Amino acid sequence: MAEAHQAVAFQFTITPEGIDLRLSYQALTQIYLSGLRSWKKRISRMRNRVIKGVYPASPSSWLFVVIAILATMYMRSDPSMGLIAKIQEHLPVSLSLSVQGQTMLSVLVFSTLLWLSLILTLRFCLKLLLSYHRWMFEQHGHISTTTKVWVTLVRLLSGRKPLLYSYQTSLPCLPVPPIKDTLERYLESVRPLLSGPGFQRMTVLAAQFENSLGNRLQRYLKLKALWATNYVSDWWEEYIYLRGRGPIMVNSNYYGMDFLYVTPTPIQAARAGNTITALLLYRRKVNSEQLTPSRVPGTVIPLCAAQCERMFNTTRTPGEETDVLQHWQDSEFVTVYHRGRYFRLWVYKAGRLLSPREIEYQIQRILDDPSPPGPGEDRLGALTAGNRVPWCAVRKQYFSSGVNKRSLDCIERAAFFVTLDDEEQGMMGEDPVGNLDRYAKSLLHGKCYDRWFDKSFSVVVYKNGKNGLNAEHSWADAPTVAHLWEVCFTLATDAFQLGYTEDGHCKGEVEHSLPPPQRLTWDIPVEVQEQVSISLSVAQALADDVDCHVFPFRDFGKGRIKKLKISPDAFIQLALQLAYYRDRKTFCLTYEASMTRLFREGRTETVRSCSNEGCAFVKAVESGEGPEHCRRLFRLAAEKHQNLYRLAMTGSGIDRHLFCLYVVSKYLGVESPFLTEVLSEPWRLSTSQTPVQQLELFDMKNHPDFISLGGGFGPVADDGYGVSYIIVGEDMINYHVSCKHSFSETDSHRFGAQIRKEGTMGWDGGRGLLCFLIVG
Question: Nearest 10 degrees: CA dihedral of 257, 263, 266, 271?
């Protein structure tokens, strides 16, 4: 093979005349340039470590401190109050230096110690400032003097150009809330869902837990909080994600979609070329830490960036009891799947990132390759879609050595996974509604074997140029992936920064001497093929059971909602409560994901959106109460929801605290009837907002057609709904609804119709929720 010959830097043969050595200068040049790229990355990492290590100061501030100390010494003043002289007395090299040299060295040592002390002081002050969260509970437009002073101080201490991870050591740790407060909030959250005797029973269980086992578990949890960076995140990752033994496809993985109205090019290879390039440019920004740290929208408050660390070159590997996340420092290739075959595509040559046009050229080579899949190769990916224990056993026995290990390593060590799908997707044709639903299902599970669900994320590029993404959940949450994928970077870079030629191809030149993509080879025995069939049947049954419905809501958006001085998220959550009540004639435990990234290594917290106030509003509407009364109840419910959201964001949520208490009880080998019952309660309505974060690459007002569809996930409960929504611009909200066909009382299209009804065909006079709030 050509690439094998090019990989040989030198050859030698032994002859009677001696050793005949033949060097390949081209290969040696490639090795040199690749090594140069690696060393540049190492130097960049060292530089970034220094910059982060001294943040919020800068390395140059050391020189300023030294000069200041020397200046004061020149003025015959001792700012060290005798410490410099003490240092000079204890210098081990005092005999070999002149008096002036000893003084200079002592000043440098003192200045360095003073500089480090100032850095620690500044960092401590910044951490204290970032621990202040009262600003979040102040009414919009009514900012207190304390908060104004606080904002000024945060700006002063934040530095001018922080790196991606500069704030990490300055972020506060997630606090452990008082157990009494958590139990009170829990009982308040279940009050509208339980009957009188049921609520009384839970009240008794909570009191017994608090007075006996609860305080003991709380002490252990506080001890962990003192020792660990975050008392929740490691347990959450392990026990909620990695220890799950069922399929991660549908149950854990989620998806992200392309633009709704626009497909930048209909050429599959070209779209893949730009998409891969954009993702690698993002990885370069992450590695060099040049990515701007995420902040709370509209503020200077930084969010934890720890989830970015395992975005690329990461794979979830199966285990018998728990899976493991494996992350590699770097990878110069991606793995591509097309029509049952796997290819390794090198994206760097001699330390240079291939141009989009060159990647398109390589992708086209894969598309044009007529070779058939090897025996058992085409559906091998089904192993990652089925149950975890059989996949672990097969991996250990048949993929731990030889050609299978080498090929599996190519997939697991790749920067990410790419599927060149031979279907067409998107909102096109005579059935746009049905097409969007099929598009969502394709991204969520595909054919159950043409994605590698263990990779941190897999990119899917369709035959007509549409694309999308399937992400594994354990390493990061949706906002991190949304920032990577949607209008924040990849899609925007693809369409506006890289662009296409008039005939739809990628821009740039092609070096035709590029070696072709390397076909991965396998030796798949009959036993593995049998397990592939079993895993595929499990995954296929799960995929066929999923009912997805995706629809853009265009009647109004956050612009009109905010004019009423109501939080758009609270408005949508109350609309979902009303829609669920009309769909199922009851209320249910409702999950809304909120972030805790105000804290170091923070992930998510649950907002229990079904509140007493929300239920009172829904009941008033359904019983025909007067408009003024309903409007007053709605505002009370919206304010309650906002307060619950703020409490969750600031570390005073309910569910993560109770979850960690439950984990401690299991470690101690003690049973708690209260915790067991709480953690077994089903979330029949699971919701999540996909944030549109930093629109830095283009203006949506000038490009209204470039609207992201957002993404979605499968239902959490077998008898419930999963609802994801993205608020796009001022006039649009996109919804993703999922449920299971196997439960006859749920229907994603019926529930979607109930959601739409709140905007167009609500109650009396055909008015929707927004119209009702305005005119009654």
Answer: -60
Pull the structure tokens for residue 135.
Answer: 């600003």
Measure the CA–CA gap between 87 and 106, rounded to whole angstroms.
6
The H or E element spanning position 387 is: none
- Separation CA 496–CA 703 (nearest Å): 10
Tokens in use for 540? 């296929």
**pLDDT for position 13:** 57
Residue with the larger pLDDT of the pair 80 and 761: 80
Please state which of the ranges 131-140, 240-249, 657-666 shows the lowest mean pLDDT: 131-140
Q: What is the pLDDT of residue 16?
A: 58
| Closest by CA position to 272, among listed 122, 455, 144, 459 | 459
Give the model confidence (pLDDT) of 92-137 as tens digits. 765 576 777 778 888 888 889 999 999 999 999 999 999 999 999 9
Alpha helices in 327-401, H assignment, sequence order: 356-368, 388-398
Sign of CA dihedral 48, 53, 55, 60: negative
Residue 765 pLDDT greater than 50, yes or no: no
Distances (CA, A) of 704 to 49, 449, 700: 41, 36, 5
Q: Cβ(3)–Cβ(516) under 8 Å?
A: yes
Does residue 660 have a pLDDT over 70?
A: yes
Q: CA–CA separation, 564 vs 562, rounded Å?
A: 5
User: Rounded mean pLDDT of the chain?
Assistant: 89
- The DSSP 8-state label assigned to residue 297 in this structure reads T
Give the pTM: 0.91
For the residues 570-599, what does the mean pLDDT come to? Answer: 95
DSSP H or E segment with residue 734: strand 732-740
Q: What's the half-sphere exposure (Cβ side, CA atoms, 13 Å) at 84?
A: 24
Sign of the CA dihedral with 46 first, then 47, 51, and 52 last: negative
Largest CA distance in the chain: 106
Amino acid found at 771: C
In which region does residue 626 sit, left (phi positive, over 0), alpha (psi from -120 to 50) or beta (all else)? Answer: beta
To the nearest 10°, the Cα dihedral for 133, 134, 135, 136? Answer: 70
In this predicted structure, what is the pLDDT of residue 1? 40
Rounded to 10 degrees, what is the CA torsion of 568, 573, 574, 577?
A: 160
Residue showing tokens 């009647």: 555
Find out whether 229 and 601 touch, Cβ atoms under 8 Å: yes
Residue 255 β-bridge partners = 470, 712
Torsion, Cα 99 104 108 109, to 10 degrees, reads 0
The whole-number average pLDDT for the span 355-364 is 97
* 559 SS3 class: helix
- Determine the residue type at 344: R
449 is written with which tokens?
């074997």
Q: Of 412, 155, 421, 151, whose CA–CA distance to 275 is shortest?
A: 421
Measured distance CA(341)–CA(350) in Å, rounded: 27
Beta partners for residue 595, in sequence order: 604
DSSP 454: T
Point out the catalytic residue in the list 338, 445, 473, 549. Answer: 473
- Give pLDDT, residue 298: 81
- pLDDT band at residue 770 under the 50/70/90 scheme: low
CB atoms within 10 A of CB 95: 7
Please state, in angstroms and as integers, the Cα–Cα distance from residue 647 to each residue in 236, 301, 594, 614, following that order.
Answer: 19, 17, 10, 17
Q: Is the pLDDT of residue 448 over 70?
A: yes
Q: Is the peptide bond before 525 cis (omega within 30 degrees of 0)?
A: no
Tens of pLDDT, residues 458-507: 999 999 999 999 999 999 999 999 999 975 689 989 988 999 999 999 99
473 tagged catalytic = yes
- Beta-carbon contacts of 445 under 8 Å, excluding residues fewer than 6 positions away, are 249, 250, 385, 451, 539, 542, 543, 546
Provide the 8-state DSSP code for 731. T
Determine the Cα angle at 510 with ends 507 and 512, to 5°. Answer: 160
